[in-house]
Amino acid sequence: MYYRIRPIVTSTLVKRHMPYALSPQRMSRWQALFLEPDYEVAELPSYEPVAAANPFKTFSALPISARYEFMLEEAQFTIMGFIKGPVCRGQVAINVIEDHFWVMFIDPALEDSEIDAEFLATQEDNLILPGVEKGALGSVLGWNKYANAQKRFLRAKSEALEQIVDEYQIKIDENLIWDGDGDNTNASLTVFRHFDSASVHRGFIGQVPKTAWVIGYSLLERIHYLLVAGFDVYGNLGHQLETRLYMDFLRMEGEYNFLVMMPEEERLRLRDYWYRGASERTKEYVIGRRAWFDRDSDIDYKTDNPKAELLLEMRQRLAGASSSEYNLDNAVLARLQQRPGRHFSHMPEMAFLDVITSDGSDSVYTLVRNTGLSNVAQLFEEDKRRLPDEDNMTVTRGFVGYYPNAFFQVTERELPRFVDDVLSLGSEADYAQLMERYGVRRNAPYFWAVSDKLHQVQMQQKPIRGGLFDLNRYENR
Question: Which residues are bridge partners to 211 per DSSP?
């Protein structure tokens, strides 16, 4: 096996562009992770599907700390592997996640490699992922196999967590969260779902989200192997369905890790709010009889909204969480984030707003509609779980997402009126008037001039990460 580095001669498309920096410093870091530690590889892993598709068996000889830190130090790239990959195509594939949530990671310095290795060794078979075997996996029997394995893993994890906390007197507080070693901005991520696509960005963007995830080694490894390394693009419908259904388990485990940091009396309340209308059996995979933690958090909360309190505190503590790249610096536009409601249901999923300032320069913002849903634990009938009164909007400086649905152009003087008009939307006719007044329709003679200008601004802001947007989802309503 060998690799070649070749220049890119085609146009760069931001929807699939994933730059990864290579440097002498990075090579030195890889050597420190994988070559310098004293460990022995007695035999190379098998290529048999049962072993090759299970990272906990395949890489069992490698130090867990090295495996985790390798993925963690480029966490946005790791998560982007599936966000921009073929697994995330279409509404059904994407509706496994909320429209807007923040992601944090467990500090690798607090994870005891020996304890983790011993625990994972006992759970290798319970951490089986779809795609390992052939034949009956598309059947109900095959699906039940994964569900039962997940139940056994959650039970073992809950028991082990309580035992470790008691035995080693570990505090369940803010210090469990990786701070990026002070300067790594991968420590805090924001994920947006845009109906049938998604995007991931560094920093905590927008208002406090409905949910948040905390990810540790085993969860990050399974996310990558389920949705990237082990996903068969040419697999049958059964494989794709099982992959989508298994992702429910991974989402719920990330939410469980976050709920553990909440006051004990708050956990079920939050879980029930996130999973309104879902079955009790489903909710128990988040926290309940299948996954539990019968200890209180060690965080001294001061308010009656501990979720917001913790997340806002972490926004100040984590490297890059208060990302200057996306920070909203416009008080007029900030009003859009303070008024949730069904008026936003008439807005597109994602739009770029070009504000022309008094000196003729451009300030570009992204308007992201976050769709209110009672839960994301069901595969189909999303329209029946819609809660338009809970729709809200995230407004961010710069560019978020890859498939803009609309362009708006306003002058600085028009901006307050534009915000008022968005907040007063009540029908499709109102939105048509909004587009007539501020929008750039795709048949407008100046459409490509505006598009070119937005691309130029993006490339100035993101000379390495930027690229062409995909306009196939641009609306005409």
Answer: 101
